């Protein structure tokens, strides 16, 4: 049996749907199993008892990365421990691209990768690049201009659907990808200035300090400003620009152009 965690999230739902389309009848691991009729299994990684992975052969572990590092490490440790306990054969983990090591949320991904490598499970690590959708949302115009502090740095952002398609291919044939790590970037790197031009608005980036000062409000959790600021900094410093061809190899086709995906997300958020 195949099980996808985070199945009602953006990435997990696409992976779940892709596996279902292939007739692989995936189970949906989620905190809201009611959404998945008979094919849902309650899965809250914050439950100290750990998730029930009985009968699961292949586990697609979508990172549950919103939280302080100690929270995320504990979540992922519970899942890997449960996978070992329940005899799961293969774990496909959605991680973070190697070029993202400067991002504030990189540590939890690298820790989870190490936990898997040192486990007795077989695994595949999908190091996902920054979502084009997220880059677009962060670059959405404010007051008629793109003001996000991305500097002149480019991002090899990638469409979430392509990352889901890659995960589906790996989960459908895990033996072919045993103990492999893939760097999944978009096919081109593009800038916030380029995005602004596509949107037909000027690019007037504020400073990092101005942006940080604006990150206040009841909707922001304490760990979020550091995460967001690290995306601006790493981009502006040029760390996220590297493109790799692992994704095309996994998909057996060219990846989607991430620019229109980011433009659509920026337009929706404007
Ligand atoms: N590469 C990038 O640009 C990027 C950007 C943002 C985040 N991420 C990472 O990629 C993951 C997937 O992205 P996404 O866009 O699909 O995020 P998302 O829509 O927020 O989905 C994340 C899902 O993780 C599951 N989850 C959260 N806390 C959990 C817990 N305590 N126990 C079990 N499941 C939990 C939830 O699934 P259910 O609702 O089904 O329970 C949630 O919907 C994120 O969680 C994050 O780690 C990557």
UniProtKB/TrEMBL annotation:
Q: What is this protein called?
A: NAD(P)H-binding protein
Please name the InterPro entries in this protein's record: NAD(P)-bd_dom (IPR016040), NAD(P)-bd_dom_sf (IPR036291), NmrA-type_oxidoreductase (IPR052718)
* Pfam families, A to Z: NAD_binding_10
Q: Where is the NAD(P)-binding domain?
A: 6-174
Q: Which domain of life is it from?
A: Bacteria
Q: Which organism is it from?
A: Micromonospora peucetia
């Amino acid at each position: 049996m195949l099980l996808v965690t985070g199945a009602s999230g953006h990435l997990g739902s696409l992976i779940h749907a892709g596996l279902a389309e292939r007739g692989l009848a995936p189970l949906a691991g989620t905190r809201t199993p009611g959404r998945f009729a008979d094919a849902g299994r309650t899965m809250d990684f914050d439950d100290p008892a750990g998730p029930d992975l009985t009968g699961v052969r292949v586990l697609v572990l979508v990172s549950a990365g919103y939280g302080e590092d100690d929270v995320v490490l504990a979540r992922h440790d519970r899942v890997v421990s449960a996978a070992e306990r329940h005899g799961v054969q293969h774990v496909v983990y959605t991680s973070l691209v190697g070029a993202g090591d400067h991002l504030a949320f990189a540590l939890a991904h690298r820790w989870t990768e190490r936990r898997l490598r040192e486990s007795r499970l077989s695994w595949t690590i999908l190091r996902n690049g920054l979502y084009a959708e997220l880059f677009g949302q962060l670059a959405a115009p404010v007051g008629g201009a793109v003001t996000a502090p991305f500097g002149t740095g480019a991002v090899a952002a990638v469409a979430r659907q392509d990352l889901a398609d890659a995960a589906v291919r790996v989960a459908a044939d895990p033996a072919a990808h045993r103990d492999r790590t893939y760097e999944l970037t978009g096919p081109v790197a593009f800038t916030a200035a380029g995005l602004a031009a596509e949107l037909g608005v000027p690019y007037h980036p504020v400073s990092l300090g101005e942006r940080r000062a604006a990150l206040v409000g009841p909707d922001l959790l304490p760990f979020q400003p550091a995460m967001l600021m690290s995306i601006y900094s790493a981009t502006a410093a040029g760390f996220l620009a590297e493109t790799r061809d692992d994704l095309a190899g996994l998909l057996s086709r060219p990846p989607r152009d991430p620019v229109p995906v980011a433009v659509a997300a920026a337009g929706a958020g404007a």
